[in-house]
Each structure stands twice: as structure tokens, then as C-alpha cells.
Amino acid sequence: MPAIENWVNEPLKCIQKLFDEHGCNLYKENVLSFFNGRLEEKGLTASIPSLNVTPLHELKANSVVKMRCMIQDMFDPEFYLEAYQVTDRSSGSTFLRCGRYKDVAECQVGQDIDVDSANNKTSDRQTFYCVPIPGETKWTKEAHSKSQDHHLPVPSTSGSASRQKRSLSIEECGSPDSVYSSSCSTLDGSSQEEGMETESLQQKDTKSLKMKGESQLQSEPDPSRTYPNLNFPLPDETGPACLVKVYEKYDEFKLNDMVEFVGVLSVDPAMASFPDEKGDDLQSSLVNPTTEEMEGIEELNVRCPPPSLVPRLHVIKAVKLHHINPELPLDISAESSTDFVNTFLKDCSHVREELISILTQALFGDSLAAEYLLCHLISSVYARRDVVALGKCCLNLSGISQNSQLPKYFYELLQELVTKTYMLPMTLEFMNKKSFVPRKDYTANRLISGILQLSERTHLVVDETLLKQGQLDATGVKNITALGNVVTWQKAEYDFNFHTQEFPTNIQVLVFSEGKSLLPSDYQVRWQPEGVLDDIWPKYSAINNYLTPALLQKLRMYVSILKIVEYKMTADTQKSIEDDFVETRKEDAKSMSIDDFHSLLVLTRLLSLSHGETTLKPEIWHRAKRMEQERKRRLLAN
Fold first, then answer.
1. DSSP H or E segment with residue 460
2. What is d(CA 460, CA 382) in angstroms, rounded to the nearest whole number?
3. Residues 6+ away with beta carbon under 8 Å from 136
4. How large is the average pLDDT for residues 45-63?
5. pLDDT above 90: residue 287
6. Looking at the chain, which terminus has fewer C-beta neighbours within 10 angstroms, N or C?
7. If you write DSSP's letter for every residue of 241-285 in order, what string do you get?
8. 623-636 burial, b for 16+ CB within 10 Å, e for fewer?
9. What gap in Å lies between CA 213 and CA 2, rounded to an integer?
10. DSSP state letter for 451
């Protein structure tokens, strides 16, 4: 078996060897088997450098890396040369080279790529634009960073690639409709000196590209130049964006999926579209460009951003993520309950007591609000019936004064408990200026992200106490409507100009408001703190001191696991609940509507799960009824 440095640092050599041994038609299965076998060995996956952790300039070009990300956009399939024939000029011999897992077809000095050979094989692959998972909390990032094994030597990209190779863009060979810069064309010449000249030109391009990428990150963009927009859904997000190229089963992936991709890193500067040193770009080189040419330029800038900012990753292995809690195994899901989950559920009662105690303190003694808040934290959409999203628990905590700092401090506490969250300040300026709904840019042929383009099970905290008198413009009204649709239907309507397209969401929305929120909610709970409110900070400071690392680990596992545990209701239990509903309606038809009954079913499910129970017990049903009665009594009293 090759040493880890060989297949991690030089995967293309392993792939070419398997290609030579098994032929063009059989090598793919052997490549996947070879790399998956190594990645599944204990400890080796942690040894793979991560784009989330390691700066790009510290990674070796054409090495195996991984990335934990969300699929923000899906481009059209692209054609490439899966196999291409190379001719040796001195001997006249020909041989095939593998074009998979790379952006540029290569051959040694003294060799030519025969683009017209009948032995060339064209195939297609899917390109995803991926961004760091939106809203990922600080502790989650740090935990993933600590789990990364940094023992592998990773040379810089600028000096790692061989510079004595003549290259040709694979996509240029496979797709005649593609547009590329002159650096992607075939390099003519047959002498070693010409090869060395090519080296200096490529090094110059790489250096220039790196300097421009660094200057963009360190300073404000120059309006006169065209730089790629990294298109993060949330404001102030940081991290690497990546063009991920998938070869196998790409139809299984959906927009907004969380995935960990493992593949070959490509940072070849020949694939970049960026301004030259004078600040000119392709657009300025055209005289009176047509509409079609302008659209081609815009799309080229999106499809071919500088690799120093947006590297390419050619996928060997992909794992869909049901969660991103680094303390839990990746294979935990609602479909496959594991012994790990079952063991945790048996011992989670004391964790629940700890969390209820902490939430009650955070809400200044309001135990009822703490119970609803706990149910909100572990809620998740588990199924859809027609237009109804089952399992959602969007909570409106009202009675919060405008001058209260409760939303701010509670959000800081929430960031310590969950893996993904975002605080949305509902001010007039924010609502009128920000874009909540993703929209399609047909000129650049890409999806412009919006705040509501979030991965599943993201906690969205809305601070409505910041809203003051004023006028919402058309954008603000559109944003309010989009938020309401997420709360009510768990769907977001993306704007495709000529029509809208519904995308399902699974976002847990918590709204802090003074009175009843402008947004709909599943449960409105009137906050009733005990005693007179003093300064909020001492209370939360005491909670922070109480949260030891060991306790935090248990609380985080509790919240993450209960979101994905499967819950069932037996036929006898269903019959008992239906009978209770009928009897209640006989006594007072107005006491429980169909909507009230549905809310009660959701609440009993979440209460059961919070106790580690995957089926409903009678005492939990009656407890949920008492909670709902108290919640409604508070609303009527105020």
C-alpha cells in the first residue's frame, strides 16, 4: 500500500497508474475503491488537510484535501476530456493520459496533445459553487479545527506544481462553446528552452494572481476592476469558497445541502479570469460588445474566478452531513438510529434538567417559557404533508421591552449550545436594504444568495424589539413576507425574475418582541420574569461561569441528537388521543380547535423527545395540555 504522503500529496500519479493498469473503461471503479479504502482506515480521514482550517497558500497543488460546506449554487454540466492521446515527438509513440480530477490537460516537454485523436474520450461533470456553512458558530469551527491532524507536510501551492509541462485546458478541448483566456491555449514549441520560458510566464501569472487576491482580501475592492463576489448568504461571513466538480451521482445533491467533499485540489492559474496588471479586463478589450458577449463575460467571471480566491476541488468522495456537531458520529440520522443514540437517550434526563435550569435562569425564573424554549431548540421538520411542514416549532417570546438587552445576551448563550445560528436585527434599515430571498442573475448565470438561503436546522433569532416607527419600502415588505412564509410553511420562494421557485427550508425561528410579533408563530409565549429586573449581565455572567466544558459538551450533544431522533406513535396511543379530543370538544367546542389540536400534538412530540422518549406516554400528553392552558391564560391576561 502506498505511504500516506504518496496518495495524499500525489493523487494524480496514483490515478494515472490505475488508469494505465485497468484501461479507460474500468479505471473509475478502481480509483474510487482505492481512495475510499484509504479514507475509511481509522485516523486517515483526520490526516487530510481541510480547506476550512488550512490557508490555501499552505496547501499543495494537486493534493487530496477536504472541505465542509454548503452547496450555494449549481452550474450547468461541463464537458471535459476524460482521456486524451499524447504523442512523443522524438519516438513517434502515442499513449493515453487520464483527464479526470484535473482542470488542465498536461504533457511533458517534447510531447504533444493530439486534440483530434479518435482515442480521446469526452465526458461531463457537474460543478457546484460551495461556501462555508452559513451561521456556523465559533465553538463548532474551533472543534473541527482541533480535530484536524496537522502532521502532514503541505508545501505552498506557488512552488509545488511542475513547471516543465506544456498544458491545455481540458474544458477547452471538450467544449467548443467555452470561452477562455489566452493563458489556456496550447503552448507551441518543442525545445527545453521554450519549456523554461513557459515556466517563467506561468510563475509570473501565479504571482500576479496571488498578489491581486491578497489585495482584494486586505482592502476595499476597486470599482474600476472586476473581482468575483464570493456570494455568502449571511453578512460578514468569512471562509473559503470553492468550485466543487463532481463526477459520480451528482443528481443526488440538492441546493443548500451540507456536504463534506474530499478530492483533488486544483489551483492552476490558467483557469482564472481576472483583470490584468493595468486594471483592464476582457470587457475593456472588446469594442462595442454585444449583449451576448457581455453575458459571456459575466458568466466567465463567475465560472472562472481566480483560484487564489476560489480554488477547484475534484471530488473523490462526498458525504452528506445530517449535522455538523464535531462531538457526534457523522452517520447519525433519523433513518439509521445507532447504539450511540440509544445509549444517550437512556441517560438524557439529567441533561434535560440541567438545560431547563439554565434556560429558566436565562429567562429570570420563567419556567414555562423555558419549557417552550427547550422544545424550540430540539425542533426540526421531519416530514411534509401537502403544504404542511410537520415538526416545526417557531416561537414568539413576547413581553420584551425595547430597552431590554435580553435578546443580545440570550443569543450569546444560544451560540454556545447550537452549531448554526444567526441573529437578524429587525430594524427598518436592515429590512429595507438587505436581500432575504435568493435571486437568479441570468447575465452571469448564477444564483445571488440571500439571508434565507440557509442549511437545514439553522436557528434564526429575530430581534423585533429594535423595530421603530417608519416606512417599509417594497424590499422590506418582500423580506417580511419571505420570513412569514418560512415560519408558516417552511419554504422560501427564490426569485427567478419571470417566476418564483419554492425551496423547502428547515429553519428554527425564534422571535423576541414587545407585543405580538408582526411575524406568524406556532407558539406565542408571554414572558413573565420573577421579581424586578436588575442588570441582565450579572445573571448571564453567572450562567457562563457555570457552563463547564464537560457540561457544554453534554448540552450540545443533547440538542443535536434530539433534532434527528425518530419518533413514533402507536395505534393505541393515537386512539386514546383522538378520544380525548372528542370529549374535550363535547364539553366546550371552542376550547380546542383543529389548529389547537395540531399544536398540542407537536408539543407532546417535542416534550417526549426532550425526556428521551421516542413514544408518547399519557402523563406527557396531560402535561402538554396544562402548558398550553397556562400559555393561553397569559395571553388573555395581557
1. strand 458-463
2. 18
3. 324, 419, 420
4. 91
5. no
6. N
7. -EEEEE-S-GGG--TT-EEEEEEEEE--GGG-----TTS--TTTT
8. bbbebbeebeebee
9. 36
10. T
Alpha carbon distance 3, 9 (integer Å)? 10
How far apart are the C-alpha atoms of 40 and 43, rounded to whole Å?
Answer: 8
Angle at 184 between CA 180 and CA 186, to 5 degrees: 125
Q: How many residues does the chain have?
A: 638
pLDDT in tens, 30-43: 999 999 998 887 66
- Cell digits for 193? 528552452
Lowest pLDDT segment from 337-351, 380-394, 437-451, 466-480? 337-351
Q: Are 447 and 73 in contact (CB under 8 A)?
A: yes
The residue type of 46 is: A
Q: How far is it, in rounded angstroms, from Cα 399 to Cα 567?
A: 33
Query: In 3D, which of 324, 397, 391 has the Cα closest to residue 363?
Result: 397
User: What is the rounded distance in angstroms from the CA atom of residue 214 to the CA atom of residue 207?
Assistant: 11
Q: Is the pLDDT of residue 464 over 70?
A: yes
Q: Do residues 314 and 126 lie in contact, with contact meaning Cβ atoms separated by under 8 Å?
A: no
The predicted pLDDT at position 1 comes to: 43
> What letters, b where the CB count within 10 A reaches 16 and e where it falls short, cover 472-483?
eeeebebbbebb
Q: What is the CA radius of gyration of the chain?
A: 28
Geometric angle at alpha carbon 450, from 256 and 503, rounded to 5°? 45
In what helix (H) or strand (E) does residue 493 lie, and over which residues does it extend?
Answer: strand 491-495
* Res 193 pLDDT > 60: no
Inter-CA distances, 570 with 170, 388, 460, 611, 619, Å: 58, 22, 33, 18, 15
* pLDDT score of 292: 55
Q: What's the whole-number mean pLDDT along residues 87-106?
A: 92
Please list, in sequence order, all residues whose beta carbon lies within 8 angstroms of the beta carbon of residue 466, skipping any fewer than 6 positions away. 402, 425, 426, 427
Cα separation, 12 vs 22, whole angstroms: 15
C-alpha cell at 418: 447550537
Tell me how far apart the alpha carbons of residues 447 and 441 are, in angstroms, rounded to a whole number.
6
Asked if the model's pLDDT at residue 142 lies above 90, the reply is yes
Q: pLDDT value at position 347?
A: 85
Q: Can you read off the three cell numbers belonging to residue 560?
A: 443535536
Cell of 517: 410579533
Contact 75, 129 (CB under 8 A): yes
For 562-571, what is the mean pLDDT?
A: 90
Angle between helices 406-415 and 349-362 (to 10 degrees): 150
The pTM assigned to this predicted structure is 0.85
C-alpha cell at 141: 469551527
Closest CA to 161 of 102, 211, 111, 214: 102
The model's pLDDT over 229-250, given as tens digits with 9 standing for 90+, comes to 799 999 988 889 999 999 999 8
Instruction: Kindly tell me the burial class for residue 238, based on how many C-beta atoms sit within 10 Å of its own C-beta (0-12, 13-18, 19 or more).
Output: exposed
Burial class (CB in 10 A: 0-12, 13-18, 19+), 328: buried
Which pLDDT band, with edges at 50, 70 and 90, does 209 fall under? very low
Instruction: Return the minimum-mean-pLDDT range out of 69-78, 324-333, 390-399, 403-412.
Output: 324-333
C-alpha cell at 549: 466544558
